[in-house]
Amino acid sequence: MAQGLTISTNRRSGLWTGAAALLALLGLVLVGQGLWIHAKALLAQVLLERAFEQTLATGVPVKPWPWADTWPVARIEFPRLGKSVIVLAGSSGQALAFGPAHVEGTPDAGEGGVAVYAAHRDTHFAFLRNVVVGDEIVVTRTDGTSVRFRMSGSDVVRWDRSGINAAAGGRHLVLATCWPFDARTRGPMRYVVEAAAE
Q: Tens place of pLDDT for every residue, the chain, 198 residues?
C-alpha cells in the first residue's frame, strides 16, 4: 500500500513538474514574440531611414527591402523629445507593422487639408503620450520640403467618430494611435494629436 502511494505521489509530482516546465516554455515563447515585434520595428526603421535618404537623393521612391509593398514618404521629427520616425505609404496592416503610415485619402503634410499619420501605440507612436501642446513637429517629405507644425491639442475619440476632415481648410497634421497606451488588447478608442502648420 505504501509503495502504491509513493508511485501515485511521484506521478503527481512529475505531472506538476511537467506542467510547470510547459508553462515556462510558453512564457518564454510569448516573451520572445514580444521582443521580436520590438526588434523588427527597430530594424525596420534603420532600413526605412536608408531608403528615405536614397529617395531624397534620387527623387525616386526606394523600397526598404525588395519584397516590400510600401516605401517611405516622410520623416517626422519631435525635436524636444529627440524622436524621429519614417512614415510609409498606405495604412495597410503590413505597413503599420514596420512604421507609421500615411492614411490614404489625406494630403501630404504641408498641403491644404489634414494629413493623417497612424502608428501602433506600443512601438512607433508609443512616445506620443509625451508630446505636449506647443511642441514642434517637423515633417520632411520625399521632395525635400520640410514643414513645421505646432501641437495644438489632443483628444481621445472612437475610431469611427474621429471628426477628422481631410479637406478642412488650412494646413494641419493629425497623428493617431490606439488608446489607452498601456492596454493589452485592441479597442475602439484612438488617441489623436492635432497640429497646425506654422
A: 555 555 566 666 767 776 666 666 766 666 555 556 666 667 777 899 999 999 999 999 999 989 888 999 999 999 999 999 999 998 877 778 888 999 999 999 999 999 999 999 988 899 999 999 999 999 999 999 999 999 999 999 998 888 899 999 999 999 999 999 888 788 899 999 999 999
Closest CA to 76 of 132, 128, 153: 128
Nearest residue to 86 (alpha-carbon basis) of 136, 149, 140: 140
Q: Which CATH number do you get for residue 160?
A: 2.40.260.10
| Cα gap 157→154, rounded to integer Å | 10
The domain in which residue 127 lies consists of 35-197
Report yes or no on 23 lying in a domain: no
Q: Would you say the pTM of this structure is higher than 0.70?
A: yes
Number of domains in the chain: 1
